[in-house]
Design brief:
4 strands
């Protein structure tokens, strides 16, 4: 399986099947300005991992406000 990419509020979420510990997926978040954040324990399903990524994006946007 290769990476799966999604867009959310201008951010790019890239999901990869290479998580750490008990997670199956890792996630890379790229902000519109190019900042990158990595989450090695994104989740065990695609749905959970993308949901966690969206939560992180929402938190980043709120912190920047």
């Amino acid at each position: 399986m290769t990476s799966i990419t999604s867009q959310y509020k201008g951010w790019t979420l890239e999901l990869r099947p290479e998580g750490d510990y008990c997670a199956v997926f890792a996630l890379t978040l790229t902000a519109p300005d190019g900042r990158v954040k990595h989450l090695n324990t994104a989740g065990n399903t695609e749905e959970t991992a993308f949901a966690r990524g969206r939560e992180m994006v929402d938190a980043e946007i709120e912190l920047a406000a």
